[in-house]
Amino acid sequence: MRNSKGSLIRPTSLPESASRPVVTPLSPSVVYASETPDALDAQYEGRVHGYTYSREGHPNADVVAARLDAMEGMPGGVVTASGMAAVSAVLLGLLKTGDHVIGGKQLYGRSLRLMAEDLPRLGIRTSLADPGNVDAVRAEIRPDTRLLLVEAVSNPTLNVADIHGLAALCKEHGLLLAVDNTFTTPRGFRPFDHGADIVIHSITKLLAGHSDVMLGYVVARDPALNERLRVFNVTTGLTPSPFDCWLAERGMLSFELRFDRAQQTAAALADHLAALPGVARVIYPMRTDHPDHDRAVALLGARGCNMVSFELNGGRAAANAFTRAADGLSFAPTLGDVGTTLSHPASSSHRALTPENREALGLREGFFRVSVGLEDADTLKRVFSDAVAAAMAG
Ligand SMILES: *Cc1c(COP(=O)(O)O)cnc(C)c1O
User: Fold this and answer.
1) Average pLDDT, stretch 41-57?
2) Is 290:284 a contact under the CB 8 Å cutoff?
């Protein structure tokens, strides 16, 4: 745009339009100019809303936060640069030296690392317990325990946490219950309706859904905690990039359709796999043979999730033959993409464990976790049939 004085560099206004864009504009601006010091005072004092510096907040992040607030049924959430930034904001931003925190023993790998390595370094003590067993969690509670962090459905064995029992336990002992809802998503499960105090998401996974953006989100029931999370986020620079937020919003527009489609296909694929020769077992919470089936129905209702795990006979050799033959599926360590992805815990997420410890978790060499995508269900069944047959022939 030409500037009327000719020599100044920045435009002072944008082209006029009586109509508005349908798509949220991308606002990469790091700074926002105010009219006068008085106007800036009004902003800082909260009398008017205005952006100042994008680490402190920007329109694209606020648009994504508002969408997730509506989905989780809680106002005031904060968008972060990744799911781990959201987990870090909760554990580092709300706890202090001397506090104790309990985590589910099958949390996301990096959350486990934060609990095992980083919190103890800062004098925050941690314990892990099975979130499907309230008595086991109760046994870890100490006078200085402040918070319990769990996932409703665990990765990769798809055990379902006893959220109702844990919520009652947390209430009784005055602990904050934080639920990482990444796997289950607000379409499948709304933790605040079941007694959670804090909800965390990796937007990177199903919510954004296209494996092209990394982003997280956290929201608390207590507005004072939301303010602490927001300030921690701004101070430590966990703020997201506007472009990532813009992409995430684009993905989230189709999230519900994608989730419903992927979840239906996952249910069909689970039944299909269970009938294939060479498949030792199938884990899907909505199947009646799942050990936590009743709890899954109570928490997830009719929708379930898009994740299916299964175990092939034949050990590592069969696992290698399977991924080689699984034409068109990505053998890649993520979940929630539009395309189906396979992960093999023994060679990736759980490779640091001894074979004995993996065995104890049920993660043998033939174990795969499938994140079901948007492919046609019949095509997907055929690809799995062929790949399992190839694995058994090899
Ligand atoms: C991926 C994931 C995270 C971390 O999210 P990033 O966006 O990768 O940082 C946290 N929790 C769960 C359950 C996840 O699957």
Assistant:
1) 95
2) yes
